[in-house]
Amino acid sequence: MEEQQNIHLMSDTLASQVAAGEVVERPASVVKELVENSIDAGATSIRVEIRRGGVSLIKVTDDGCGMSRADARMCLLRHATSKLKQVEDLFNINQLGFRGEALPSIASVSQLTLTTRRAQEVEGWRVSCEGGDMAPLMNAGCAPGTEICITNLFFNTPVRRKFLKSDETEAGHVEHQVRLHALAFPHIRFTFVRDGSVVFDVATTHDLRFRIADFVGREVAETLMRIRPTEAPGVRVSGYLMPLSAARRNKRMQYVFLNGRPIEDTIIARAVRDGYGGFPTGLHPGLFLYLEVEPALVDVNVHPAKREVRFRRPSELTLAVIEAVASTLAAHARGEAAAPAAAEVNHEPCPPLCPSPTSAPSAARRPAAPVPPIQPAPVLKPIVEPQQQDLPLPPAPSVPVAAPRSREERRATPPQPAEPELPNFRHIGNLHERYAIFENSEGLVLLAPRAARERILFERLLESNRRPMMSQRLLVPELLELDARDMGVALEAAQQLEQAGFSISRFGRHTLRIEAIPALLPMSDIAPFMQELLQVFTRGEVRLNRARNPFEPFARQLAQRYAAREDMEPWLQRPLSLLTELLRCEIPYCTPGGKPTLIPFALSEINRRFQAQ
Ligand code: ADP
Ligand code: MG
To answer: What is the pLDDT of residues 352-369, one digit of tens each?
Structure first.
């Protein structure tokens, strides 16, 4: 009897067609892949031409490094890439591409012609491919760079073709895609041609605002507020915000780029909202947000088309975004001119490079400024840099809370008990015994006392970096029975406990003796509190020994756990002092974990919603 065999290996072409299902959805996704390759190749000028929505023609021409004869053949094979050599590279991705799938996938569902020449060579090469079948390589006289011409997309996969929308719609998607690339890389010239006419041709620029102006018009560009460049360990945030008055009902004016990739991400979207101080639901502020995150802190390999990313330390990024947005709005509310500039996307033109036929274009060409190495910076800080020449700015929008004060400002003016410029707030009552309500001339603010206390305690604890914390000696030392693991953790955290103002010592094998507690954190239930705190570290939710500055995560936990247990009643009785103290914090708008502490409602916004004059 003949042995039955149902399982067989797919042919390379079939495998590519299957992969194409994930990568090549529509003409815009082809354009995305091709343009990303051109950017990775160090191009300074990229031209995209389409006909009939990209179905009959997609042509992408660049002046990048080009390919050698051998590479011109190789690049159409599955899993052929010059960008990824070992699995570790996957966690340190500096290029837009790395899967080695795009070209073969596109080639398997279209007729593709690739023409390429390296600048240092006198002639180029051309190779054609139909439905994945490659014709022999030929010499070609051509300019340095690469041109990829795709005709008859999905000619051999009619079902896919049927899924395409009208030419008009597909062309719209392509245009949007090219616009995204152009906004992400202002130093590259982008030309987009549709059915024979030039839709846009944007010149290379060193000022991101000019590139934005190419798309939104000069009038709108003049109303942009430059984001105060903000840094957290391994993260840098820059870009522009649109005034609140320009908010829309859709997210079309929200552009977020992560290391040169446009992304849509709920974590970032929420952080933006929080930064705006809780935006009225249904409205979306316009913004051009550029995030530069150390490649090791983000995983871009979670989606075949790389539309989604996964952050390894989302809370730091969240905080950086909130801080960047909130401090920019606050600075404008105070009527300050443009925030410090110069830290936005690095507009240095990329030197065209092609080091060796097989080596990857190096990180040196990456458009985003290299992110500084992870530092033990305890909190986010606006980067203070010299002012840059800027377009005139509009009158500032108003936000009814005061701005966070930078460290420099605080050093210059020692904090006074009552800050006249700050509150002017009147406490008008509490909501459900949970939130305090304040009004001032510009609107009202809701304060969450527990979140506020968390922020205040955290920042006060961090002051121990500069001067020792006050301790409160216990009349009778508290003895804490710990199992071996908890004891190990307590001893590991001994230094942080001491820094925070605790005084502990080991008392026998399983007993920890607590002799003093921080004066900042008066407590009666010391033992259960310490048990709970140590548990967080025992369970490994927070690892002090992995952190560069172990005191910061420790202080974060301490502040959070303490505030969670604290009785809020007294604070709700005199919330104005709490608000004042909160507004003296460096980052008043959120807890160290990124939850809002204050939600402002501008009077203008309230009027607008009531349709009042
Ligand atoms: P990936 O970008 O993931 O490496 P692709 O299939 O998109 O995979 O491209 C395969 C390889 O072809 C790239 O790694 C690169 O070396 C080369 N290549 C593709 N497009 C270009 C281009 N426009 N200029 C120079 N080299 C290119
Ligand atoms: Mg690619």
So the answer is: 323 333 333 333 333 433
With a 6 A CB cut-off, is 83 part of the ligand 1 pocket?
yes
Residues of each domain in the chain carrying CATH 3.30.565.10: 12-204
In three-state secondary structure terms, 436 is strand
Q: Report the nearest-CA residue for atom 18 of ligand 1.
A: 37
CA of 69 to the centre of ligand 1 (A): 14
Pocket of ligand 1 contains residue 102 by CB under 6 Å = yes
Domain limits, CATH 3.30.230.10, in the chain: 215-333
81 alpha carbon to ligand 1 midpoint, in Å? 6
- The tokens for 140 are 């070609």
CATH 3.30.1370.100 placement within the chain: 417-603
Ligand 1 test: best mutation among 29, 60, 62, 75, most atoms within 8 Å of CB? 75
Residue range 215-333 in CATH 3.30.565.10: no
Identify the pLDDT of residue 305.
60
Question: What count of residues does the chain have?
Answer: 613
Give me the CATH code for the 417-603 domain, please: 3.30.1370.100
Total Cβ atoms within 10 A of residue 553: 20
Residue 44 pLDDT: 97
Residue among 108, 110, 46 at smallest CA distance from 77 = 108
The reply to whether ligand 1 has any atom less than 6 angstroms from the CB of 80 is: yes
Among 295-299, 304-308, 335-339, 379-383, top mean pLDDT goes to 295-299
Nearest residue (CA) to ligand 1, atom 14: 81
Segment 40-65, tens digit of pLDDT: 999 999 999 999 999 999 999 999 99
Nearest Cα residue to atom 19 of ligand 1 = 37
Q: What is the pLDDT of residue 501?
A: 94
∠ CA 64-69-71, nearest 5°, is 65
The architecture that CATH gives domain 12-204 is: 2-Layer Sandwich (3.30)
Q: Is the shortest distance between the CB of 29 and ligand 1 below 6 Å?
A: no
* Structure-model confidence comparison of residues 34 and 302, the more confident one: 34
What is 229-272 written as a DSSP string? Answer: -EEETTEEEEEEE--GGG-BSSSTTEEEEETTEE---HHHHHHH
Q: Which atom of ligand 1 is nearest to the CA of 36?
A: 2
Is 115 a pocket residue for ligand 1 (Cβ < 6 Å)? no
Q: What is the pLDDT of residue 132?
A: 84
